[in-house]
Amino acid sequence: MRQRSEEILHLSITVLVGSYFYLLYNSFSSFIGSFIFGLLIDFDHFLDYFKAYGFNKFNLNNFLSCAYFKEKNKLYFIFHGFEYGFILIILGYIFNSYQGFFYSGGISLILHIIIDTYFNSSKIISYFIIYRIYKNFNYKEIILK
């Protein structure tokens, strides 16, 4: 149930941010940016799962449990990084004609990660890709509080 609540919250926030920036910039690309960076970043969980077990051994219950992180002692989720959100916002500042896309994408991504931090009771720093690289993606070092 917790995971369903989290995903509904991700979807709701993404739609709200996308709608706000769509109205602000009158640009559908604003909504697309919010969708890409607010929801599709979760596809990196598949990458972690397949890295742990390969492509031939998919089990939905095992995937949803996220046990593969602990079991393999690796935590990559390479698309989950606050840095990406900051970069998107900077790109919006640089490329005026794409501000809606980049701003909505950056805000959606940052809010997505804040929600993940709350639901996973994680340290904020664990959602910086630089920190995970520094810790060699070691699950125990990243997750321990």
Task: Provide a descriptive summary of the structure in words.
This protein has 145 residues and is mainly alpha-helical. The chain has one domain. Helix content is 70%, strand content 0%. It is built from nine helices and no strands. It has helices spanning 2-25, 28-38, 44-53, 60-65, 67-72, 82-94, 99-119, 129-134, 139-143. The longest helix has 24 residues, at 2-25. The protein is globular, with a radius of gyration of 16 Å. The mean pLDDT is 90.
Give a quick rundown of the structure.
The chain has 145 residues and is mostly helical.
- Average pLDDT number: 90
End-to-end Cα distance, whole Å, is: 24 Å
Oligomer: single chain
**Estimated radius of gyration:** 16 Å
Structural class: mainly alpha
